[in-house]
Every structure is written in C-alpha cells, then in structure tokens.
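Hey,

The postdoc asked me to send both predictions to you directly instead of through the lab channel. I've kept everything plain text so nothing gets mangled by the mail client. Protein one:
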Amino acid sequence: MNKGFIDIGEPELASELGMMENQQLRIRFADAVDAETLAEIGRKSFYDAFAKDNTPEDMAAYLAEAFSVEQVTKEIADAKNLFLIVEIDGQPAGYAKLRVNEAPPAVTGKKPIEIERFYILQNWHGRGSAQSLMQRCLEEAKQHGHQTIFLGVWEHNQRAIAFYHKCGFVKVGEHPFLLGSDLQTDWLMQYEIES
C-alpha cells in the first residue's frame, strides 16, 4: 500500500477544522515502530469513552486483550489491516484501523471495508482531527477499490453515533460485542462511497 501522508497546514483549512492556524495536522500510515503508540492511544481512548459505563473487571480484560503491544504489532503485520495515525504538531492525536474482512449480513453495500477502530484522544475532540481522519479513511477505501465502508458503534455511544451520522453513515443493523464478560449491542453503520 502507498505509504504516504497528508498535511493540513493551510491557515484557512485549519481554521475551518477548528484548529489553531499554526498547528500542523498530518495523517500517515503506521508500521511496526508505531505499535506502542497505537496501543497507548487505543487504551486511553477506549478507557476515557467507556470506563464510566462498564465494570473495572470488564474494562481491564478488554484493554489487556485488545491493546497489548504484542496484539497491535500482530495487527499491523496483517496485510488485511491498514492503520492511519493522526499527528498534530508531531504529537499523536488518534488513529483509525481499516480492515478488509467479511462483512456482516446487514452490510449490503458492494465491496465493503470496515473501520474497525476510530479513536481520537479526548483532548483533541471537537477540533477537526476526527473529520480529517474520516475523510482520509474514505479516500483510502475508494483508492483501494471499495464501494462501501462500515463500522460498529456501541448503541449507547451517542457522541460517536452523532459524528458518524454527520459523516453520512446510516444504521443498517446490529451485532453483538463482548466487552470482558458483558455482551453488548453495537449498531452497524455503513456509508456508500461515490465512484
């Protein structure tokens, strides 16, 4: 895959995204040297978003399983995965993980690809980095021949659901998500990529 990046440093675009004019937003592909950074962003983002609504035991079990450096390293090495890191002024602000995977039956669009993870650190919420990262996900999906992009989002995560709706995603179904010992329900949402 193309190992490129985008810079969003033009003052008018930075202003439009809610960022300070002198901030540089960069989105680049991740590789093995980024595993620890991705694991840390994933743990912190997931904890900040969901700890208040789940037991400490379930959170600890999921965080240990999903965001160990070993697990993330393995995922980076898998050719079905593509990781995109957002950096602002050289500091990691979040990441997305795209995965070519068999889509659930509710996802009916052609040539689907999944956004399996989409995390922005809390201190960067509302400042344009999420919109930039989503745009890059859509561009990468289209560039690799996909016509549909889908994701799962916890049914009680209203902030994320509102963001995905704003980006043009629509709910197409539901599926189970196991957090530790707690079986929860995620919404399945999809977006049709213009050809």
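Protein two:
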Amino acid sequence: MNAKWIDTSIIVGSAIFILALAVSAFFAPQWRAMHVMQALPYIVIVILTRRRSPWGFGAGVITACFWNALILFRSPVGVALVHGDVSRPDVALQLLAALGHFLIIVACLVGFWRTRPAGRQWAQFVGGGAIAVGYLLAMVWTVGPPEAAEHIKQALGF
C-alpha cells in the first residue's frame, strides 16, 4: 500500500530530528533530560506509521508542523534565515531539525492519504497530533530547564 520511500523518509526525518536534539544536548547539558523525553514521540511515530496507524501519521504531521512553525516563524532562527545567517551553529542545527520535520510532514501526509481515510481515521489523525504536541509541551514545562518554558511562552505569544 505504501511506497518504501514513505517509511524511509519518516525514519530519516525522525533520525535527523533526534540527531539535532542529541547535538544540542551535548553542548547544553541543562536540556538533556528534556531532549531525551522529546525524542521518544519520534520513535513512536516511526513504529505507528509502519503499522499505517492514523494516530502515528497525525502525530508526525502535526508535531512537525507545530515545531517548524515555532522555529521558523516565532524564533530568532526565522529572522536569521531571512537574513541568510545560517553560520551560527544553533541556527544551523535548528534548520537541520526543521528539514527533518519537512521529510516527516510530506511522508506522513502521503502515507496517511494512501490509507484512504474515512471520518474515524481523520479523528485519530488529529487526536494523535494533539496528544503528541501536548506531550512535548508537557516535557518542556516538567523536565526542561526554566528557560525552555520561557522560550515556548514567547514563541506562542504568552
């Protein structure tokens, strides 16, 4: 039912994002616990999408869109990209993570569409995304350093 490129793209995109989390955690130890917890949904996304689960496809699309929107439109990374300044390591790393997310988004959308979803599957798709985003935000506030919650609050306009 699904082309091999879909599974491969989801795995590669997730691996790229997890790699970006690992590099960030290496250089910023205060973020390690949060980044470990934030990597877990990407493992779940790979497992669920290989089973053709609407929950996994939704988690992949909605989580990746949410974080890319924050990174590209509501953070200094977006400004740096507009000015062509990707020479800063933190900007380059977040850009790499966003590229991993773009792979996930495209592959999950195509993979989900190929399942010929009906009403219930669409509800599961949205539910999977909501649960994943909720989990990631909960990790920011419970496991992350205080500045993590402040970054998210600013990005969300609170």
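Summary for protein two, as requested: The chain has one domain: 4-156.

Thanks,
C.
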